[in-house]
Amino acid sequence: MPLVSIIMATKDENSLHLQKCVNSILSQTFQDYDYFVIIDTKNDKNIQYLTSISNNNKNIKLLFNTGKPGVSSSRNYGILNSKSKYIGIVDSDDYYHDHKIEKQVNYLEKNEDISVIGTNIILVDDDNNIIGERLYPKTDRIIRKQFLYKMPIANTSILFRRKDLSDTGLFDENLKKAEDLELWLRFLSRNKKLYNLQEKLVYYR
């Protein structure tokens, strides 16, 4: 059983952005993972590419979400099909630094009190040019305070412990917006600790 499952819900994504994302996962220095790619329909414009890469890479699991359409439902479907100790979320137009998963797993393995770990992010445009950055607070104490007025953690950078889902539940499929914010607030309400590595390990559009 892999130590990590990466969950990616995608729908008719820009093909070049999607390929950049997929390649960044496949080139991770940490290789003990499953990569769940979830789409709502076989009519997705990237179906041929997604089918090809899943057929040619044992790490990639292509799933069709036959339930309620939407990103929350697709993410939940991927999570429910996974069995790993840690779960990561990636958006299909973003991409990872090569050492991203390795650094997060190493931290979680050494810090059992942390439930959710994020990173700082680099902002890029459609052509992958760097246009800025977003820096997030490091410690759980400051993260909790900042949740009162802004999002202090980048959803696409997240890695979290599967065991904590038994206390928090999955993404709320009834929400059309801010489903990630609502889930992390549930983590906080159940006294789960959050932490952000102070390295820029995700490229975000």
Written description of the protein model:
The chain has 205 residues and is of the alpha/beta class. It contains 7 helices and 9 strands. Strands 1, 2, 3, 4, 5, 6, 7, 8 and 9 form a 9-stranded mixed sheet that branches. Helix 2 links the parallel strand 2 and strand 3 (60-64). It is globular.
What keywords describe this structure?
205 residues; alpha/beta; nine-stranded mixed β-sheet; 7 helices; 32% helix; globular
Helix content: 25-40%
Give the helix/strand class. alpha/beta
What is the count of DSSP helices, taking H or I runs of 4+ residues? Answer: 7
Largest sheet: 9 strands, mixed
Order of helices and strands: EHEHEHEEHEEHEHHE
Q: Which overall shape is indicated by the principal axes computed on the Cα atoms?
A: globular
Rg of Cα set: 16 Å
- How many beta-strand runs? 9
How much of the residues is beta strand, in percent?
25-35%
Mean model confidence by pLDDT? 95
Unreliable stretches, pLDDT < 50, 5 or more residues? none
Distance between the termini: 32 Å
Summarize the structure in short:
The protein has 205 residues and is an alpha/beta fold.
Topology:
Layout: E1 4-9, H1 15-26, E2 33-39, H2 47-56, E3 60-64, H3 71-81, E4 86-89, E5 95-96, H4 100-110, E6 114-124, E7 130-134, H5 140-146, E8 159-161, H6 165-168, H7 179-189, E9 193-204
Parallel strand pairs: 1-2, 1-4, 2-3, 6-9
Antiparallel strand pairs: 4-8, 5-9, 6-7, 6-8
